[in-house]
Amino acid sequence: MNPTSYFWKEIHDLPAGIGFGLFSSRHFAAVLCCGLGVAFALGLFLKCSKKRQDVLLKATALSLLAGNLLRDLFLFSVHRMSLAYLPFHLCSFAIFVYLLQAFLPERFLPFRRALGEIGLVLLMPGTICALIFPDWTAYPLWNFMCIHSFVWHAVLVFYPLALFLSGRLRPTIRHLWYPVLYLGIIVPPTAVFNHFTGCNYLFIMTPLKGTPLELLYSRMGACWRIGYALLVLAVILLMYLLLWIGQRLSRASVSRVEMK
Fold it and tell me: What is the pLDDT of residues 162-216, one digit of tens each?
């Protein structure tokens, strides 16, 4: 069968063994393309005026929603839409976070900043993990669902980075309760939904194969979800540490320039 004939196929309509494979050269090439694309887009974004940046942020938030709807239309067209494709994963929840962040009026600026910080320290690392440990490796690269997944996740990485690098966010460890509260809001109802439908949103029912969650399960058994929670907390703390170091280095660089 001609590989191009696989382009408009959903996973259940593809033969086994034609995926790009986790940590394969094709996987690394796709992630590299995503990284270069995000870097290029950020470079263009930061050259724009603040007013233009606001327009681009709104367009980006809308594109995430549009991209998700486009995927769903495709799935409906091939009769493969199911409960498994609802927007209840961490990355999918980001659609609504970024829409609120982009479109709420200025009087909600503190709340908008909180949403942006949640995106930066929680949603963005989650998105990067999705690119490093994708759950769509069974697809060939030249497939709509595969290309969509890589591009859509790259846009998810771009949004919080654009907020931060343009000076719209002031992340601090004192705001640790932002992402913790956010998880406290989305995890319980998602767990209930998983229980009644048999879905695995947020990967809280069973660990995703080939990821650190699978390692936690093999080491901790039935207590693996405790390790999962601690891992998420560790990632958030690491993000705050990296941001603090970056801010300190930036201030030191500015001070040296002013002294000259």
Answer: 999 999 999 999 999 999 999 999 999 999 999 999 999 999 999 998 899 999 9
The answer to whether the CB of 170 falls within 8 A of the CB of 113 is yes
**Spatial distance between the Cα atoms of 6 and 144, rounded to a whole number of angstroms:** 9
The CA-atom distances, in angstroms, between 145 and each of 85, 117, 245, 250 are 12, 29, 37, 40
C-alpha torsion 69→75→77→82, nearest 10: -110
Name which of 72, 91, 93 is nearest 83 in CA terms: 72
What's the gap between Cα 26 and its chain centre?
20
pLDDT band of 256, cuts 50, 70, 90: low
Contact yes or no for 231/246 (Cβ under 8 A): no
Q: What are phi and psi of 171, to 5 degrees?
A: -65, 140
Query: Can you give the residue ranges of every domain in the chain?
Result: 8-200
Q: How far apart are CA 208 and CA 135, in angstroms?
A: 8
Amino acid at 111: F
Q: What is the SS3 assignment for 243?
A: helix
Looking up tokens 């080491």, which residue turns up?
219
pLDDT, one tens digit per residue, over 61-98 is 999 999 999 999 999 999 999 999 999 999 999 999 99
For the segment 93-118, what is each residue's pLDDT rounded down to a tens digit? Answer: 999 999 999 999 999 999 999 999 99
Count how many Cα atoms sit within 13 Å of the Cα of residue 142 in the half-sphere of its side chain.
Answer: 5
Amino acid code (one letter) for 23: F
> What's the pTM value of the predicted model, to 2 decimals?
0.94
Q: How many Cβ atoms sit within 10 Å of the Cβ of residue 78?
A: 14
Quickly count helices (H) and strands (E) in the chain: 9, 0
Single-letter amino acid code for the residue at 214:
E
